[in-house]
Design a protein that fits this description.
This protein has 379 residues and is an alpha/beta fold. It is 36% helix and 15% strand. The chain has 2 domains: 22-271, Type I PLP-dependent aspartate aminotransferase-like (Major domain) (Aspartate Aminotransferase, domain 2); 273-378, Alpha-Beta Complex (Aspartate Aminotransferase, domain 1). It has helices at 19-30, 34-37, 56-73, 90-100, 114-123, 223-226, 240-245, 255-271, 274-293, 321-337, 362-378; strands at 8-9, 80-86, 107-111, 129-134, 157-160, 162-163, 168-169, 182-185, 202-206, 216-222, 299-300, 311-315, 340-341, 352-355. It binds 4'-deoxy-4'-aminopyridoxal-5'-phosphate (PMP). Residues 13, 88-90, 115, 160, 164, 185, 187-188, 206, 214 line the site of 4'-deoxy-4'-aminopyridoxal-5'-phosphate.
Length: 379
Amino acid sequence: MADTTRPFNFSAGPAILPQEVFERAADAVTALRLGGHQADAPSIGLSLLEVSHRGAPYQAVHDRAIELAHSVLNIPKDTHQILLLPGGASMQFVMVPANLSRSGQSSSFVETGAWSTKAIAEARHFGEVQVLASSSESKFNHIPSVNWDDAEGSSFLHVTTNNTIFGTEYEDIPQTPEGVPLVIDASSHIGSRPMALGRAALGYAGAQKNLGCSGLCLVFIRRDLIDDPAAPSAPKFLKYATHAKANSLFNTPNTFGVLVLKLVLEWVEAQGGVEVMDRRNKEKSDLLYDTLDNSSLFAAHALSGHRSRMTIPFTLDGAPESDRDTLTARFLEEANDKGFQGLKGHRSIGGCRASMYNAFPVEGARALVSFMQEFERRA
Ligand code: PMP
């Protein structure tokens, strides 16, 4: 059951997490339990925040988080290694080309929104970049079609599989040419449904949406790429091999972030896994898209067939242009007063955005659409 005393949190990230995770994380901050903070295990009498990352109590948390990431997210263990790295997803904009660029080869990108634009800008520091397709001219309201064969000969091919700001999403991880390592930024939809993550040679996701808290990035990398002798020279800290050899303990990890990741993955598993997340996320996003498509005031930003189930930007474009900004501000203010928080759109496109990550309750989506319908009748 939803906790009716809490506001409905539509924040894009850091984002809503399950209440049980908050409670269990608070418990570990008070006193960590043995066995990776198992609920019924004895406490060690010290906070997670004050114990060594090299000691057994934290090691159990660390190893279990990695184990769960493989099993819950279906990241194949025989082919891929999981790394838990600092620097958020933005650090991967640098680490990917620092490791995967090859002299004499360009890298390929699909430009689907602000985050891919940022990744492209960083990759240019390491060599030539080929943008295979871009939807920038239509305010990134769709996933542009791509002839994947155009990536042949590239050092890697980068795709942002859910576009947090513009609300578009790839239906599944694309099938791309075999010889070109596919890199995905799955930050804003990882864990939201079953996905063929193993198709990617390298994937990454900032944890602060479906996986936990900010400052931690989950990376999975195909084992043959870790120590590839063709990799360019790079500072030790930026090399995947450094972190892979040290099991993500080369430097002091974000121990709290790793614990929260573990608790979130345990929660997903206990709920029935990514299949159950998928059903709930579909129900929530269908409710909102149906309302938007049947409204003469509200409109979805993303085109049908390209729409994200996680991050849904919308506008009040049905209002006359002269009233639109005032009406949008009134909608957001009234929504906020009614306990719908975090609905303001990203500053780059304005309007509104409802991010409904895994932990967001179906009741919240129902409440939002009935408020929108009621607002439209009055507007
Ligand atoms: N990629 C995507 C798709 C994102 O949504 C974000 C953050 N919202 C980032 C990258 C950057 O993540 P971070 O702030 O953790 O560096």
